[in-house]
Structure formats: C-alpha cells, structure tokens
Amino acid sequence: ELGAGGAAPAFVQVRAHTQDSKAAPPPPPETAGPYLKKGGESNGVIAMIDLLVKDLDKEMQEAEVAEKDAQSDYETMMADAGTKRAADAQLLTEKEGAKADNEEALETEQGK
Length: 112
What we know:
112 residues
C-alpha cells in the first residue's frame, strides 16, 4: 500500500541507541601462537606408509611365486592327462578288437 502522498514506506535508521564515546575497541582475543611444524608426527605416518608398501611388495612377490608354481603344476597335470588319454584310447581300441574277435568266434561256434 502506498503511504501519505502516494509514496512507498521506507526503512528508517534510528541512531538513538548508539554511544558517542570515543573509547578504543577492546583488544582482539588471544590466538594459539605462532605456527610450529610438527615433524615427529608426520615421520610416524610416513614410516607406517613405507611399512605398508613393503608388506604389499612382499605379498606380491609371494603371489607371483605361488602363481608360477601353480602354472607349472597345471602344465604337468595337463601333460599327464594327455598321456593317460592316449593310453586309454589305445586300450579301448585293443579291447574293441578283442570283443570283435570274441563275437566272431562265438558266431562261428553257434553256426556249426
């Protein structure tokens, strides 16, 4: 709404509560003091990180050795399996031949 004379109301600043004293403001609060570097604590953290890196390197070396051993074992097992498979195939061929011979002999006996 418009005020008297068609003007919009305005905010008015009242200086009734201010003091006219020329006194200086109070001093600022005390601070923690000058910055000091804390070297001992950071050295402990760095040493801990170095220890973690060394442990990780050691575990990686152990994993690589274990993987090489496992790969060698796998290759040996596959070679043995191939040899056994060939021997089994040969044995199966021999048994099928013997079975065929026996069936032929049986037919010959029954035909007489």
